[in-house]
Each structure stands twice: as C-alpha cells, then as structure tokens.
User: What shape does this take?
Amino acid sequence: KDYSKKVKKKKKKKKEKSKDKKRRRDKRLGDKEREEKGWHQREQFLLGAEADKPWSQSSSSVGQSSISGVSRTTGSRATGFSGDSSSETDMTVDTVDSTMTTQSQPSLVDTFRNVLAEGLTMHLHSSTQSKEVFLWLQGGPLPEDRGRRRSQSRAASPHLLCWRPTGSVSRRAYQLDLSEVLFVEVGKQTPVLRTGSGAGVDEDHCLSLITPNMSVDFEASSKVEREAMAQGFALLINDIKTGDYLV
Assistant: This one.
C-alpha cells in the first residue's frame, strides 16, 4: 500500500514537471513571436518618426522649432538635478504645436502605442548597474496573458509603463504611472547617466523619464531610436495628461 502511494506520488511529480516544462517552452515561443511582432511595429514607428524628423530643425535642441512645449533648451533642471545651461535640453509634455501636422502626430502616437503594447527591449540604467529589460504599456496584453482572450486577461491601467529584466519569468514587474512624468530628457542630464552605470554610454543614445521623485533612465540602440522614443513618450504623455488617451 505504501509502495503504491509512493508510485502515485512519483507519477504526479513527473506529470507536474512535464507540465511546467511545457509551460516554459510555450512562454519562450510566445516571447519570440511577440518580439518579432514588436520589432516590426518598432521599425514602422522609427520609419514614421524619421520621415517627420521633428528633431532635425536644430542640432542643440531636439525638435525645438517643430514642437512648442514638447522640448526646449533650458538652464534650469528639475528639482534634484543640476547641470550646465549651454547644451541641456528637456522635453516637457504640456502642449503640442500645430506646426506638426494633424495627420503625422496621431499617426506617430498611435504607432508608438502599438509598439509599447507589443513590448520592446531597452537597456535600463541605475546608479550601480545596467540591464536589458522588456518594456511594455499595461493596458495591452500583459506578458503572462499572452494567448488569452481579452475577456480572460486581467484588468489593467492604460497609464502604467512596466518593465522587467529579460529572461525573468517569476520576478515582479516594475511600474511607472506615465501621468506622473513631468518631462522627458534627452542626453545625459541625470546623475545615473552622468556618474552611474550610464557614464560610459554614448550621450546620443540616452533618454530619461523625469518624475517628482525619481528618474527612469534608458539607453537606446541609436540616436534615431532615442529621438523617436523620446518624441513618442512626449506625445503619449501629453495625450494622457490632456485626457485624449484611448485604450
């Protein structure tokens, strides 16, 4: 009788192990499929942003003449940050100038939403280390909800930017409410990017999301991608703050 119980217990463990292995395999395949789809969306966004080139008007200020209130050159930094006034730029999210065509702006914002809904990988910097993270906008399908019907997925806030280290399955995702972002900075304007893990990174690849309490510092793969991501974040946050965001 005891032997029979041991056999059943062993079979049960083996079955659970097999199911767990299958779950992990399906997740890896789902990640790969999602990444391929995400790269396609990302490529479309970068092409669209590069065609508009809102940052090409000025070498010292990203899109300064194209988008009033989204970016400006300034000598003052956000509370807790300091720097020189000659070349510093930040991207505020107050208003979007009408000089950007009504067709191109919604197109960029919509494509950027799709990029974030699918998710993408970027490097995240902190004071001590840099790591590759999977970044997505909560309000689209969460990574653990892939393959489920929309009605089966958990309810999510459309304002949360989420990330977790790539390859991490069980680790809880970090979250940032985009409505709390004061502005987007390009270049090395924060202590993390100046003296932390981002000290050796090309300045043209850096951008930061600034909140009243902290900065979230990213490294893009190229200057074009950095400018497109900064522009996308600025427009998206502007939509959220003005109540134009739609899931």
Summary: The chain has one domain: 2-242. Residues 52-103, 140-156 have pLDDT under 50 and may be disordered. Residues 2-242 form a domain with the PH-domain like fold (CATH 2.30.29.30). Helices lie at 2-52, 104-118, 191-195, 223-242.
